[in-house]
Amino acid sequence: MSSLTKSQTNQLLGYPADARLLIINADDFGMCNSINEGIICTLREGLVRSTTLMVPCPWALHAMHYLADHPKIPFGVHLTVISDPVDYRWGPLTSGEKVPSLVDRAGYFYNFKAMPAFLAQVKIEQLEIEFRAQTEAVLASGLRPTHLDWHALRIAGRRDIFDLMIRLAKEYGLALRVMGRALIEKLQSQGLPTNDNDFLDSYLVNPVDKTARYVQLLREVPAGLSEWAVHPGLDNAELLAIEPDGNHERQTDFDFWTSQQAKDIVREEGIILLDYRALQVVWNNVSSPGI
Length: 291
Fold this sequence. Notes:
Order of helices and strands: HEHEHEEEHHEHEHEHEHHHEH
Number of strands: 10
CATH topology: TIM Barrel
Helix content: 40-55%
Largest sheet: 8 strands, parallel
Distance between the termini: 20 Å
């Protein structure tokens, strides 16, 4: 059991012990235009309060211009070293010669399906070079992120990668997304506020009955802090070409999180919607150098 209980987490953030706190974050800002437009529309509706930026992707500049024009929108750096679609790919900001373990023979990041091979051979010092490059590219543009998170990485077996992310978050004055009970407890034992309840990835919610499942999950949000990563996008020709087997995950997220039904349930349940700004303040107050 973590040394930082749910009531202590809520207390650090200034809420009663029984408050039901929820961060709903729109992942993948910058991947393509249809995703950017879906995220922008979802943010305007107000339930999804923040987003995370994929700096190496083709539409990142469009996303960064939008964030510069709307500085009140909180966002994180979506550390990206995986390239998902087969026919639409991206690679590192850093020269491939400096980070050879991050790229395949064509010079792109490894595909999602090749992640086990990637994780088996990637060099932690090269990951740090690229993670820093992505974070510093955002800072150099004049934008001010609130947190770090990551795109698609399955890092349960590479604790050294998570330790690197903790160190970078502290160094850059950012909060950090956490997934998995062991990692949640690792950070909470340091007095850092994180989600108390395990992280939800909307790609694991079946699009066929997504509305009903989201309704159930909202009704059952527990006390303490939860985070849900959602993936809104518009099923236009661009997105359907990029993700031909996508099963409408992004459109169904867009439909629910812009709906009046979702707004009504959040209000009825008394759920308090947050973003990472609240965590960032506490992280900066209690973090100490090192891990």
